[in-house]
Write a structure and sequence with these properties.
- It is built from 17 helices and 28 strands.
- It is α+β, with helices and mostly antiparallel strands.
- The strands form ten sheets. Strands 2-11-8-9 form a four-stranded antiparallel sheet. The chain has a four-stranded mixed sheet with strand order 6-3-10-7.
- α1 runs antiparallel to α2 and α2 runs antiparallel to α8.
- It is elongated, with a radius of gyration of 31 Å.
Length: 582
Amino acid sequence: MSVESIITKKLDVWTSVIKTKTASGRGSSNKLELYGIKKLRELILELAVQGKLVAQNKNDKPAIQFLKDLEIAKVKLIEQGSLKKVKPLALVDEVELPFSIPKSWHWERLGNLGNTQTGSTPPKANQEHYGSDIPFIKPADISDIGVDYDSMGLTFDGANKLGRIADEHSVLMVCIGTIGKCQLIDRKCSFNQQINSITPYVPEFGQYLYQALRSPYFSRLAWDKSSSTTIAILNKGKWESIPVPVPPLEEQKRIVVKVEELMALCDQLESQTEASIEAHQTLVKSLLETLTNAKDADELNESWQRISEHFDVLFTTEDSIDQLKQTILQLAVMGKLVKQDPNDEPASKLLERIAAEKEQLIKDKKIKKQTELKEVNESDFPFSTPEGWAVVRLGALIPQFQNGVSSRGDKKGKETIVLRLADIKDWRISENDTRRLIINEETIEKYLLKKGDTLIIRVNGSSEIVGRFITVEKVTDAIYCDHFIRMRFPIPCIEPNYLAILGSSRLVRDKISDLFISTAGQKTVNQTHISSLTLSIPPVMEQKRISERVRYLVAICDELKSKLQTVQRTISNVADSVKANY
């Protein structure tokens, strides 16, 4: 059986399982088919480095002869002054061998196959070193499809002073962060300290070496040998010690041709599948827009009924399920999710009571007079809301803010839970693995959380996390660290669960993205930012009905996602099992 037949057969196996597990083949399996194609690519490279992709030819000179030719080329480079003499790395021990290879092949450590380097970056003060003579490559410039040579460059003088230049036919590999990402370069390049390079002593070896270094085998070992504190790091010594299976030179050429041929086949399959996915995404987006465009709850219910009949086809990816969930939140804050009740007290009455209470609190000197809030305009809230609702700045509800405690523990006091970001799971507080510190009574009293409080994530590296609202759902004896802001309202005016819905909606998330401050990779929101947010406020009783409806619908979304993840795990297990047999 030809390799092409094996590859096609494996895709058929994965596709068959995907369609069986998803119950419907009508476009529902596209993302999983992409996963199958990813596994096919891995299989191709795994077969390549194990000597199973092309037939061996007894007339080929064995790999041991090729390695002798490499050594001769290395000596010439040293004699010419192009290369410094370095001590060879130790022979590969038999216990290190992860799989068997053909008799004509040979195991050799990466560092013995070419000149290895770790990159560097010129000081920013030396701007004269930056130019366009030689590309300067960073991890972001390396992708599966090639190298972006145009994003940044150095002058010849700057590159020479840096001393990190890799010639054409070299392989660059990221060894800090996204370890294993690599590419073959087709021109001289300089590169930064997150990248290692190997320039083979014989240029034509570069093509096969690239395929070997991007194989699952090499990637696994690279990750295994890396160390990590906050970011994974693979130093050059460990990197160049990794054993590489080396075929005879003529077989290397056949392998490279076959890999490229089969990868092109995968590209075709992927392109077809991606076109189908794009069509599916357009369909989902268009149908969800019919929900947000509904005039009222009755029209929404009609549209929902039509869509719900096709859930098995529409919501078959995590992205589409997330879109559905976000649409539910959007409908909630627009006042279209539940029917309005004319007997509910309108939000305007609530706001009048808050304004009166606010004046009294200022008069009693219990709160300070606030800076006048900016008036809400159409750009702040570009939707119409139902009768009985109000649109206001959050600050108009006179929230009380308190940034979290920065204490790392006191000498005397009471053992107390101090909530961290790690204690937030799925946007809820989890006390399963909390940290307890000795905290003095005064601090506990100041920072103690009460049921109904809202914690706001004050600082984080992710724009999707910073500014999130977390509801304190039950009585707790916990306080909170300085990654949070506590928000509570002296006058009950907003249902905590409805506030959490607002905080997760695009209405608020997009505004927070415009407001946060970025410093050293960290994004921060403050009390002023939160006070300036525009909120849609329904009558209190309607807030409760909305919260219940959202809870029910989001549970459906979570169930859909859980089932999808079960299918994905099944496909992964099947794919790995099939791959293991070849």
